[in-house]
Each structure stands twice: as structure tokens, then as C-alpha cells.
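A quick aside before the break. I want you to see a complete sequence-to-structure record at least once, exactly as it would be stored in a machine-readable document. Don't worry about memorizing anything.
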Amino acid sequence: MADIIITENARKVILKDAEQTYPHECCGFFYGTDEDTRTVLEAIPVENTKEENRERRFEISAKDYLKAEQYADEKGLTLLGVYHSHPEHPAIPSEHDLRQALPYFSYIIVSVKKAKTVNVLSWKLNDQGRFAEEKVINQNNPFDVDVFLSSYQ
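That is the input. The structure line, written in C-alpha cells, reads:
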């Protein structure tokens, strides 16, 4: 399982967007470095342009994708992927998410229930074209108590 480190500032942007957009899906891009481990340094929300069923689907305009690529170039960062939320659903990619996925990108999914974040997971396509989970590491809190406790259950 690959690791993805999310800085506290990027994490706050993603979670705030997910909670404020509830009960609709939010979406946005995240940027950083991709050396030994992917490190998310920045996240920027974009408009969910899906016209219907926004509680279960998101869509990012081609114009926003272009802006995201330009922003990465201007800032000297790598466009690492897309984040979105799953209101009242787990942070597990749907078949729709799989159909939209690009090979290089990571996909951070935020599970939001009753306008509060429940879970944050990250996924990336493997060589078989299926999602494989990436271990999410909060840069300011690398010791994950939930992981520690689950090993004793």
C-alpha cells in the first residue's frame, strides 16, 4: 500500500469544503510533490458542475481541469489528483468514480454524515485498472491512534 501525506492546511481545506457542501458532493484538486511518497501541500475547491443528482455525483468542468494544470505549472507543483465527498456514504469509490478515474491521479474521498466528516481515504488505480487504497498520513499527526487501536482488536 502506497502512502500519501496530507499537510494540515490541505486537509483543513478539503474537510471544510466537504462539510460546507453537504448534502451535495464537493470536489476539488490537490497539489504537491511526488517523490518517494506523495505529499499534498495544497488543495483548492472547484464547483461541482453536475446539474442533477449532486448528492451522489460530481463533475468538474474541462475549464477547471485546464486551470488546475496551469496552476500547478505556475506554482512548480504536481497536480496529484482530485478529492470529492460522499455524503451519507462510505469513503469508498463507486463504479462511477472508477469510470471517471485517470491512471496517475490519487482520489481522496471524504465520507460526510450529518455535515460532519466521518472518514478520509485515498485511492489510486492499480495496474489492473482497479482502485487500490493509499495509506493517508496526516503530516502533523503521523501517529494514527485508530490504526494502533485496531491492531489490538
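Two observations worth writing down. The mean pLDDT is 91. The chain has one domain: 3-150. We'll return to this after the break.
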